[in-house]
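During the reporting period the student researcher (J.K.) took over the structure-prediction task from the postdoctoral fellow and processed the backlog of single-chain submissions. One of the processed entries is reproduced below for the supervisory committee.
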Amino acid sequence: MVSWGAIKSILIFFGPMLLPKAIGYYRSFKAGAKNGGRPIRPVPSAVSRALGILFVIAVILLIATLPMFSEENIFTTTNSRIQIPVDVLFTRLTAIRPHGLTELDLRLREKLVSLESKLLYLKFGPDAIGNCLFCKADDHRSFYYYAMSYVLTPHVFNLAVLAAATSGMFVGEEGTVWRRFATICSVIIAAVDLSYLSEYDHKLNAKATRLEDLDMFFWRTHTYRYIVLAGLDALVGWLLFLSSTNRAFVIPVSAAERLETATKVLESARSKMSASAVVLNTVNRDENLRGKAQGYWVNETRVMSEIMAEREVVDSVNSTLESRVNIAAITLDADSYSKNMMGGFQALEQAS
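J.K. obtained the following structure tokens:
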């Protein structure tokens, strides 16, 4: 098992190298969103529902890691070592139980008769030891086959949740982008979980002389399993948020999409121009409307002339031109442009 000190050493060594790369990737994602031709937008309503579901499931998975929601460990409950005689162990357990031993306790009392069975208890948990009808202490694989259903149940449930959250029918195109990623990650996590359970050597606890030295493998992997699944849901939700809002992982606008957008804009402008032409033609054909239109423009010209002739307006325009517009530079540019144009004409006349 990797110690916390080793993890800190790895982070201290690789942190200065990985952190700048992570920041660079984040900036490239933001730049990709800008260069992809798709502006950042709010989260679509369908994606919001998917994010809400993933958040709720992630919280439930984290709550499931609490000791009250995991199976009881009789060694921890009775504060007993692995070498304790079975009679003493269950005598302590009987003293704790207000209503006596349960049916599972009685079955465990019959099966935890050797050190090997106790070691298997720490690896596969009380349900596999007490309720498996075809399992034998000398056949470790039988316990593994029985425990597979317990291990795979949360993985299958979480995979179904991710499938719904990335479904094209439920979320739309934004969700289908991450459907394969979520499925592959779920399968890999489940495979690693089963492989870890299969390869773990339960005899490592045989030399533990204190309760604190025991590796409670079944309960430890239970906690890690639900934390990893909650982290996967959080990761998929984060990716959904980034891609659906065009903050990262943006697919650039294709030439066909740009052409379609430009065509729609042109069609809309053409429709508006046609409507304006129809209205203008109607106004010009009707004598009353034509008179009103001419009267409006005559009055508009008079009003604007009076406004522009007021002293305050003239002073404001002059002040703006003097402070914000460099008249001298504009005059110089115009003079240079006119000279270049006239010089070109003179050169053409001389050549002819």
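The committee noted the following: The chain has 14 helices and no strands.
J.K. will present the remaining backlog at the next meeting.
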